[in-house]
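Input/output pair, single chain:
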Amino acid sequence: MPVPIDVGVRIQALGYLELGYTPAQISEYLGISESAIYRFKRTAIDRGYNPQKSKRFLLEYLVDALRSGRPTKVTEAIEASIVSILY
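Output:
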């Protein structure tokens, strides 16, 4: 499973792109793949980023989306501490 890339690094990568740096340069500076840089830009555009209207990067453009799936299991110790707090 790939290592998640921090939102700050994602914003930094898009900022470099907007300043005219090449994906190869950004990849070298930040230590992320060029394909990840293109993916961040595509995701931001899909979520409403439009560089023709505004150059601002909002967190909603680049934060991780919620993922579906089974929640993690609660251990008995955690369940007991929750129950003791509630009662």
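The first helix runs from residue 7 to 18. The mean pLDDT is 89.
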